[in-house]
Every structure is written in structure tokens, then in C-alpha cells.
Please model this.
Amino acid sequence: MFGKLNLLGLRARLLVLVTLPALLVGILVAVGGVYLLERHASQHLERLTQRTTFGVLSVMQSIGLRIGAEASAYAQFPAMRDGAQEPEALLRQISALLDERGSDLSELLFFDDRGEVLARLPRLPGLQPGRPSFQLLAPQPDGTRRAVLARTPFSALELLVAAPVRNQAGELRGYLAFGRLLDNGFAHDISQRVSAEIAFTSSEGLVGVSNSGLLAELTPDWWAQAEDLGDDSSSEPVILDGRRYSVLVREFIAADGRPQGSVVIFARSESWQIALSEAIWLLIGLCLAVLAVALFVAVTIGTRMVRPLVAMTASLRAMADGQQPGELPPLPPGSSSELRNLAHAVETFKRASEERALLARQLNFLASHDPLTDLPNRALFQDRLEQALAMAQREGQGMALLVLDITHFQEVNEIHGHAVGDELLRQMSRRLSDALRQSDTLARLGADEFAIIAPRTNQGEAVEALVERLLDVTAAPFIIKGRALQVSVFIGAALSDVLGTTTPATLLREADAALRQAKAEGQGKLHFYDPALNKRLVERRALERDLRETVERGGFTLVFQPQVATADRRLLGAEALLRWRHPQHGMVPPDLFIPLAEESGLIVPIGEWVLREACRTAAGWPDLSIAVNVSATQLRDAQFVVLVESVLEETGLPAHRLELEITEGVMPEHSSETIGTLNRLRRLGVKLAMDDFGTGYSSLANLRRLPIDKMKLDRSFVRHSLEDPSAAALVRAVMSIGQALGIQTNAEGVEEEAQFEFLRSLGCHEVQGFFISRPLPAREFEAAFLPDLRQTR
Model:
């Protein structure tokens, strides 16, 4: 494509380069023509000058004496001398006298001694002589002056002879001038009239006139003699009516000292050269103007042709360099199909490049930002945290790291769906951002976990003020799809030391430990990290490692707590409970390792082992049920129903003897997935029980829609039912609910006979607790409650 662009650009440049030489050739031809014209005219004029002009000047010198004598005679008129009449009137009288005499003078003038014309009387139509000049010829012996006035190029000259006019006192009043038009006709006429006295000759462009009026032949020898004996009287070139003349007067003095003649050297008029030069320069100016216009047109056309190509080339180079290309200019009208196709290809390539660049920017953004909230992700957060710690070390100031979790976020997802949960995350991120300073960084670390980097914050009071702002902005309900969700945040905070020894990993670990403590204390709580938390964190990490090893090698055991009917104390079944004996720490309480298994995800393989081992054990019992606890993580597994079906088939336990206990926390309001899973389990024949009823968040309306067979009253209600009237009232209420819904009831934690009798009086179907038996290993359980089975073994 670059080659095609270069080819088209070359074509456009060639068009300009071809146009300019053509114009230059035209200019050279025009100038050459003018030069040839000037040369031809010069040669013609030279011939005309040699043949005519100097001859006319010779006659002019001779006839000038006669005109001067006549002018002197008229200058002596009394009317001229007394000054009684105006000069114009005197000139008209003289003109009338000249007409009577048949004179062919061309004009009459009267001017002062400065050369200013006081009166003028043209005797020929259209005659407009120039201003007289007395610098041409020296004063004549007869007192007259002679001047030559220019007219137009290539025309004849005018001989102007002036005689002084003096008043009665002899003072100079002015000059009376007679003008005679000098042309070829005049010269021919004079030559005929005075042929006896005047003869033409021409020698090297010089004309000599004697004092007697006769024309002398001026040979080169004569001219050399004149130069030796004569005395020059020259004048500078003069401009008459805008035309240039060069005049030289030389008086020839004979050997005896008497003047023998006057030599008038009158160079040819250069007015034609001036006019011709003006014409040439005018023509050159016109040619230059045409050239400028042509250049402008050529450059404009070339620019319009080249501009799109230059823009295309620049765009392609920008795209090749990974830069953003600019907009392409529109093509000029009448562009070729080749150029249009090329422009279309470049535009297509440009769009594709822009799309790739946009995709690259999006990928770069997604690499460092959370796609749901547009907040920095964990990678960018880690970089910002390192920068903040480095800045704190340079400035000698500490910083704070806050880690936040949304309360009940899992319930929101399960009850309202993930779309509502995603919108909750977006709204939460906006609210948290509004509460932060510009220098703070808010990041989403995953799920509902956020982190805040607060530089230049090394005091607990400043962190508490920040937390107050965070709690304020999250206090209002979140309105999502017409639902008002009331959630809050757990906040754990850790402070770096001012010495700069804290590492990013350490600070994040401390903030996580503080967050777990905040969760343990309840929602809307802030907890600062302290060293004791770090000790517990280390212990927790070690316990998690040991728990993982136990899952891999096997080290768990099951104990079974009997469940009996309140009516006749008949054994109905047992609940399988998990126990873990640690090699170093002994028996680990379930309340300690079960939450750890939930957080680490180990609950899935542990729960599978419990389900398989409990079903295998119960399969050898007579018609007794076996209750197994199921976590929320297990229930959300899409393959859980398949697992249950596989275990029942593998162990041979009838499905109706298996009872799965679930907590209220895994019973979302509108979770179609969870309800679907429960319904599929019911269709298998498995019974479902709600464990720890009364400690969760399910509503009675939700309880009515759930496919459960049994409610298990939490031990906390049973423990105080005899001495606390409110606890007894709650127990009665639960029993009434079960009876109203047709659901069997089970009471946990029965430890006394009185409790047993109280529950039986309320219609409770079955109980379990230390009053009946503590949880026993399988063999002890069988020995205590299934003696016949033991005997058969």
C-alpha cells in the first residue's frame, strides 16, 4: 500500500513539474520575441537616424539662423516692447502676420528668462510641444537661442528659436519663440529650396554647419582638427516630455582664431528605448503575473491531489508506529477511481487499526481493573500499595490499609440472584469512592472484598474518621430493581510503622486478620490489627495446613448421637457428627475447624467423606434414619444431587433413611437453584430437615414454601426453656408452627428429664441430647442402642 501511495504522489508531483517548465518555456519565448523585436527596431532606427535625423538637424542648424533673424525682427515690434498688450494678444497678431506671409511655423511662444511659458499659440491642430530647454545650445551671436523639443517616439523633432524681447529701457522682458516642426518632408523641402547653399552629408553620425549657413563636409581629418583646435561645450542628457536626448555642441575655430562653424552633435533619441523597455517590462510583468497564476493553480491542484495522499501516508505511518491516526481529508471532486479505492482501503485499515487499538486499551484496562466496578484489581492494588509504602518511608509518615466485606452479600446473591449482587457491588463501589480523598485508592480484591489505601494516615483517630464516613455512605438502603437492600460492611484496618519496615504482604495480612475479627464481632464494626491477632492468624494458618493434610491422608472420625421419639422413647435414628483428633493438639472442636474448612473450600471433600461414611455405617443398621449435615457450599454444587444418588447406590442405604440437615442460611428467599436442588433430593426419597431453626433469617412465608420434612429447634432455646418464660414461649411457638405446617419437630440439647417432659407435652416429635446419650463412635452406639445387631456380628 505504501508503494501505491508513493506512485500516486509521484504522479501528482510530475504534473506540477511538467506544468512549471512549460510555463517557463512560454516566458522565455515571449522574452526572446521581445528581444528580437527590439533588435530589429534598433537596427531600423539606426538606419533612419543616419539617413534622416542628422540630415534634418543639419537643415535645422541652417534654417534656424533664418528663423532666428525673423524672430529677432518681430521681437523689435513696438507692441512687444512697450508691454501694453498681453502676450496672448501679441502672439495672435504675429500669427496673423505670419499667415499673410504664408509661413509654415508650427507654434508661437512667449516665456520668461527662467523658461516658464507665459503664452502659447499652436498653429497646427493637436500640437502639444514640450517645455523649452535653454541648456541645449549656447546663445547665438545674433542673440537668439535654439532648442529642440521632443514629441513622441519615432516622430520628428521641433526646432524652437527664441529671440529676446526688451523694453524701452533695455531690460529683458522675455523671449519670443518661433517653433518649426522638423520631419522628413520639411528636410526634403528645405533641401530643394536651399540646394544651392546647403548640402547633406553624414560622417560617422556628425553634422557640421558653418557660420554662413552652409553645411561643411566633416571628414575624419577635419574632425580630428576640430578636436585639436576646438573648444567643447557640452550638456548633460535631457528629458523632454519623458523622452531622453543627448546633445553636444562644438564650436570649430579656424587657425586665424575666427569661428568657422558650429558642430551640433545630436545623439539619436532614446525615447523609443525607454518606451520599448517599458513595454518589455510590462510584458515581463504580465508574463510573471501569468506565471504566478499558473503556479498558484498548479500548486493548488497539486496540493489538492497530494493532500489526501500525504494524509493517507501519515495515517499509515502512525498506525505502523502504534499511534492514533488522524482524520483523512475529503477527496477533491473528480478524483480517480484508483484514488477513491485507495482512500476506501486506507479508511478500512484505519477503522480496523482503531478497533484493535481500542481493544488493546480495553485489554490493558481489564488487566489492571475490575470489569464490574472499574476499580483497580488486585494486581494494580498491589502496585499502589507498594508505592504508598515507599512514599510513607520517604516522608517518614505512616499509612493505613482498610479491608472491607459486605454483610450478608452471599444471602443477597442467593436470594435475589447474581445480577442484583453485581449491581450492589457497583453501587457500593460508588458510595465508598465518594467517601474517600483524592489521594486514597479503592480497589476490589474479589467477590465482596474491597481494600482502601489511605496514605499519610498513621493515627487511629484519622482511620476512625474515615470509617465513620464509610459507614455513613453505606447506611442508606441500596435500591436495586425496586428492592431496598439494607447491608453494611465489616472493616479491618492495619497501620504501617513510620520507620518504613512494614512490607505490603505483612500489611495486607494484618488487615485481613483484623477483618476476620470484625466479622466475629458483628456488622458495622471496625477492628484494628493487634499482635495477638497475628498470633491467632499464624495458628489458623497452621491449623488449615494440618486440616488439608488430614483430608489427603484421612484422619477424621464420625460419632453418632441418637434421636428418640418423645412418645415412647423409641430409637428413630442418629445424627452423624464429625470429629478431628489432631496429632499434637488432640481433639479439635468442630466450631474451630468447620468454619476454617468452609473458608478454605475443604468442606467439599470433607462433606463427601462424611456422607459416604455415614451412609455406609447406617446401611448395616435396622430401619433407622441417619442425619448428615450439609453446608451451603455443598448445596450450591451442581453435582451434589448426583453425588447423593451415587453414595446411596454405592452403600445400599435406602433413600428414605437418609436425612440431610441444612441451616436457614442456605434457604434463600428466591433462589430457584437451591429450591430446585432440594426438590430433586425429595424426588430421590431423601428427607430434608432445617437445622438450628430460630437462629437464621428465613421468614415464615419462606418456610412454608420450602420442601422440608422436619424442623430442629436449636439447643439455645431448650437450655433455658424451664427457667425463662420467654424461651419457653418461643419453644411453644416453634412447636405450633410445625404442627400448623404439618412438619415434624426435633429438639436438640435436651439434658434433663424435665426438659424432655416439657417438650413432649408440647407435641415435639423427637429429641436428642445428653439426656439420651452423648455422641458415640459407631461401635459404642451399636453396643448401647443396637444390642441385637451387635450379637449378630
User: Anything to note?
Assistant: The mean pLDDT is 74.
